[in-house]
Amino acid sequence: MSTADLDSSDHELVAIYRDAASDLVAIVAVHDRALGPAIGGCRMLPYATLEHALTDVLRLSRGMTYKCAIAGIPYGGGKAVIIGDPLTAKNPALLHAFGDFVESLGGRYITSFDSGTTLDDIRVIGERTQYSAGYADGYGNASASTAIGVFHCMARAWREVGGTDLRGVRVGIQGLGNVGARLAGLLGEAGAVLTVADTDPARDAQLFGAVVAADEILSADIDILAPCALGAILNERSIPTIRARVIAGGANNQLAANEDADLLRASGILYCPDYLTNAGGIVELHHQRMGSTPEALAAHLATLADTLGEVIVTAAQCGKSTAAVADHMAEARFHGARG
After folding, report:
1. What is the mean pLDDT of the chain?
2. Cα–Cα distance for residue pair 207/172, rounded to 1 Å
């Protein structure tokens, strides 16, 4: 069993952990703890190389710092990755070894579920560490809160471009996983007209209506685009083809580059910054740890749309992209916490 710390210019901690007995290879990255202990999910994916895994965990942990700050919760940004196929390599011994790793960090990082891990996995991990979150009694899956936050922000953004409610509004959802499927349900209840893209067209057509290919949904004739799958889909190639007036979705790192936010603004497309729009899940984890009432959680989720409204108004006033304004707001909070 070995742990190696790596130097990273803007991260407080990057640690690689190997456990020969369970074949665990994992990385934890802590970006910033000015607002509190770092929190973020654990991904388990069959990364091609250690470098690919490291790139992912550094990027995602940094994003968590901004997400926690913009959502107004007392945590910093962290993330973990386990290198391996979750369908074939996951077992209790490996999860216990990861729990030992998290516990050894002494509370600097709090883990939860992410791609390739489940609530049940986090319960197993929690048998070996006190620093896990997401499975408190009386709460559901945090993905539901992510979808609710996206829905609130989408509705607010639609009003900002002159709409009223979402009835009859054409929404395209890319990805029908935990968040996308729940968002589709909320939009269906609100009377939106859905076009979806995912990996099971027959099921999707039966449940959600019109189905297009994943690469076609970006240019579909829709009013709102909701990316809920892959990152980096908004880039210099895709943006000129987008016909939607609003982009609001649950995917992380939707912009391929920071400059793409300016391209969206120049194209007249209102972009809802992803780490604000999809912050509902981390908000729920905070309220689980606080033992809050469902009403307190619901009220906090609704404030994400208020923050988005502030971002949109400020961006219009200062002639900047919504992404740049959101970054500035988040940075002011976590830099300010250092005093």
Report:
1. 93
2. 14
The answer to whether 2-125 and 142-336 have equal CATH topology is yes
Q: Which CATH number fits domain 2-125: 1.20.1560.10, 3.40.50.300, 3.40.250.10, 3.40.50.10860?
A: 3.40.50.10860
What does the alpha-carbon distance between residue 127 and residue 123 come to, in Å, rounded to a whole number?
Answer: 7
CA triple 193-197-203, angle to 5 deg:
85
d(CA 307, CA 69): 11
Q: Are the CB atoms for 113 and 241 separated by under 8 Å?
A: no
CA distance 2 to 25: 10
As a whole number, mean pLDDT of residues 167-173 equals: 98
Q: Quick check: 300 pLDDT over 50?
A: yes
Known catalytic residue at 320: no
Ramachandran region of residue 213, left (φ > 0), alpha (ψ -120 to 50) or beta? beta
Torsion-angle region of 164 (φ positive above 0: left; ψ -120 to 50: alpha; else: beta): alpha
Q: Which of 67, 79, 90, 320 is catalytic?
A: 79
Sign, Cα dihedral of 198, 204, 208, 213:
positive
Residue spans of beta strands (DSSP E) within the chain: 2-5, 13-19, 24-32, 38-45, 76-83, 109-113, 170-174, 193-197, 210-211, 224-227, 246-247, 270-271
CATH of span 142-336: 3.40.50.720
Distance CA 131, CA 104 (A): 10
pTM to 2 decimals?
A: 0.92
**Lowest mean per-residue pLDDT among 5-9, 146-150, 261-265:** 5-9
Please state the rounded mean pLDDT for residues 88-101.
98
Domain boundaries, the chain: 2-125, 142-336
